[in-house]
Amino acid sequence: MYNKNRLTRRDLLSEIAGLWDLVIDHERQCSYAGLKHSLNDLGGSFEQTAIKTVISMVRYDQEVRRLVVSQGGVEPDMTDFLFGRPLEQTIEMFGYGIREKEGKFSLVRI
User: Fold this and answer.
1) C-alpha R_g of the chain
2) Measured distance CA(66)–CA(22) in Å, rounded
């Protein structure tokens, strides 16, 4: 029964103009696989690129969430449903965190 005719996010969101496209773009920009790949590059020859990529992903995730609330009228507690757990929280599962100081972001080991 579980695998038959389940309601999906797409079923719920595809009728709202532009929202499903935004969800898909967010998944592409902020995928857990992409995050994991970049974090795995830390300590290697691509470390600086990996750091920039991770910070860029987190900033994109934050900005999309902010925009759908401020411009799209979405309730803040719905952003996790739309986009999953914030990347700022997700990277903690990998032992890293994001710190912001004076508008600049850095990736730190926690």
Assistant:
1) 16
2) 13
What letter does residue 101 receive in the DSSP assignment?
E
- pTM of the complete model: 0.85
pLDDT in tens, 46-86: 999 999 999 999 999 999 999 999 998 899 999 999 999 99
Task: Please provide the DSSP assignment of 12-52 as one string.
Answer: HHTTSTTHHHHHHHHHHHT-HHHHHHHHHTTTSTTHHHHHH
Residue with tokens 């038959």, as numbered in its chain? 4
Burial class (CB in 10 A: 0-12, 13-18, 19+), 87: buried
Element (H, E) at 99: strand 96-101
* Structure-block tokens of residue 17: 């103009």
Q: Which residues pair with 68 in a beta bridge?
A: none
